[in-house]
Amino acid sequence: MSVALAISLAIFAVIAVREWLPPAIRIWHVMALGAVAMLATGQISPRDAFDAIDWNIILYLFGVFAIGHALFTSGVSQRIAERLALLRSPTASMAAFVLIFALLSAVVTNDAAAIIGTPIAFVLAHQTRTDARVFLIALCVTVTVGSMTTPIGNPQNLLIAASGQVPAPVLTFLLWLLVPTIVSLAIAVWWLSRGLTPPDSDAAAEPPSGPAALAAGEGGRIWPPVLAVVLLAVLVVGESLASAIAPDYGFPLGYAAAIACLPVFLFGRGRRQTFLHLDWATLVFFVAMFVVTGALVQSGSLQALLGDLRDRMTEPPVTAAIAFAGSQVFSNVPLVDMYLKLLTGFSTANLMMLAAVSTLAGNVFIISAASNVIVLQMAERLRGPSIGFSRFTLAVLPIGIVSTLLTAGWILLLDGPVRDALG
Prior knowledge:
Blueprint: H1 3-16, H2 27-40, H3 46-52, H4 55-73, H5 76-85, H6 90-108, H7 110-127, H8 132-147, H9 155-162, H10 169-193, H11 209-214, H12 223-245, H13 253-260, H14 262-267, H15 271-276, H16 280-299, H17 301-306, H18 316-330, H19 332-342, H20 348-360, H21 370-381, H22 389-421
Helix pairs in contact: 1-2, 1-16, 2-16, 3-16, 4-7, 4-12, 4-13, 5-7, 6-7, 6-8, 6-10, 7-8, 7-21, 8-10, 8-21, 9-19, 10-20, 10-22, 12-13, 18-19, 18-20, 19-20, 20-22
Subcellular location: Cell membrane
Organism: Marinibaculum pumilum
Transmembrane segments: 26-45, 57-76, 96-122, 134-153, 173-192, 226-246, 252-268, 280-298, 352-375, 395-414
């Protein structure tokens, strides 16, 4: 076992037992120490570590964090939650919540939907007098599953669409993945709604402590953050269409987020507070994660673990197995990046399998998907209830397994007829 892989497994292990460690130890602390260990042991040089950081994603997260904070402090998050809470039951509210954020994740990426949805999950839980942890876990599952449907839903889909091997990316993703996405979301609502506390139960009598106090937000203009969300959606969709028409016309999504958040900083009230109260800890987590995964890529750990399977990487069932297991060790974005570089041939079915399973693998552990980390870090920052590693896994693992098997089976079912239709 390489030192880089050993450090990565140690990071995973510490995060797994974090619920039994002092509360002061955060997820970003663990990842940052892991990055320092990679540098200190010479697994990656400072220059290579800097190059490994995807500054485009960091800029994108900065812009979306600013928009999400402004939506919360202006009261938009509470208004949305109040409308959802007017539905006839907590289950109906959850179903509407899942539908909205599945659509949002498909249009503006899962990370953006996670950022915008976290305060809404808190307020909605307070309004329906239910456990906020159920809505937070529902948000994690929703933005993961919903993002699978489009080439702009998450970073790994973007990598696959940008490879130039997917014809008409938007239509192709919808054709192959829309049906299993809808079914998986329905399964998620059914499974998670079983954990909702009834409105008249003793457990629901007390509202969430921290989030309840913050629910009303700080007040401010509503139109700047709303305009920012509209701008973000237009720019992200526009970038996807431009790239599909002519790759030279595409532009980094970090630029899209930077432009979209300008109304917040130019016209929003409390823009200085928005900047100061940005979720800097999560940004540090992602910078450290890129250093850790960069060291893993350089170590060749994936190639060594694949062994004889390297010759079968073009087979969809093999791709499904590698994508699901490898995403737990390397995280899904680095795994997809490495997988594409190792592929010797391309087929649409295999690429759809890679996109779908690497995404759905996020519904296993907290660190299996970046959006999970965003939600839980923001939850802690908003003084909400902590969600332990075991609770999270027990809640999402059945959804992760069922949705993965369902989606893989659907892709294999489509593979033959689609090949025949294309001649």
